[in-house]
Amino acid sequence: MINGCAELIDKSYLERAERLGVALLCDGVKKSGLEISNCGCMDAGIMPVDRGMTMVGTALTVETSEGDNFPIHLASYSTSSEGYVMVIDGKGYLGKAYCGDLIMAACQAVGFQGMVVDGYTRDRDGNIELGFPVYSRGFMPNGPIKKEEGNVNTEIICGGIKVCPGDLVAGDSDGVCVIPREHIELVLSMAEEKLAYESKRRRTIEAYGEAKKNGTELPQLAPQWVLDMMKDRMG
Ligand SMILES: O=C([O-])CC(=O)C(=O)O
Ligand SMILES: [Mg+2]
């Protein structure tokens, strides 16, 4: 089944997500109390091809299996709009690579923000040279087959996480997370609260380091919640 693409996510949301990064976005899911498996994080087997690759965009989904990359070709040519991340449910198949730097270059030329593959990719060096963010289970020189049309823009599972066309997908050195489209605003605001907490913590840690260096009185290093928990548990 080949469906049209979901509407692109508002740029202001993407900019906020980019500023936060994947770990804080997952913290935002946790703080929001939403019942989302693993806080929206794909499993740790799905990693960036190169450290420092980052992406944020709107999910365009592909479902395929057994190393068949015909559906990936169909998805690549299904839009000319900039801003999608291609999320490929390859069923974790590890016998063949689903794609390499040729398809990746085509996706980059179209304006995809990146690609996530539940399976292997190849042409690692070429991929890094392109600077196109790709997240996969690793590398396999054995190339793909071209067979079935698969599904484009249907609900899929990738890296253990449900992904619907139009969801927010973010990736960085830590991995990939998915925020359901209907919860983007809530998750971003929760993640921004966590960011504010972390900034405050960083200032406290810095002040402690400075005081230690200067031989002045040390400020309290432990956060208040640790002190409260210690009192509760240890009296
Ligand atoms: O040859 C293929 O179909 C996959 C590949 O390596 C590429 O896209 O560069
Ligand atoms: Mg190739």
Automatic annotation (TrEMBL):
It comes from the Bacteria. Its cofactor is a divalent metal cation. InterPro entries: RraA/RraA-like, RraA/RraA-like_sf. Its EC number is 4.1.1.112, 4.1.3.17. It catalyses: oxaloacetate + H(+) = pyruvate + CO2; 4-hydroxy-4-methyl-2-oxoglutarate = 2 pyruvate. Catalyzes the aldol cleavage of 4-hydroxy-4-methyl-2-oxoglutarate (HMG) into 2 molecules of pyruvate. Also contains a secondary oxaloacetate (OAA) decarboxylase activity due to the common pyruvate enolate transition state formed following C-C bond cleavage in the retro-aldol and decarboxylation reactions. Belongs to the class II aldolase/RraA-like family. Homotrimer. This is Putative 4-hydroxy-4-methyl-2-oxoglutarate aldolase. The lineage of its organism: Bacteria, Bacillati, Bacillota, Clostridia, Lachnospirales.
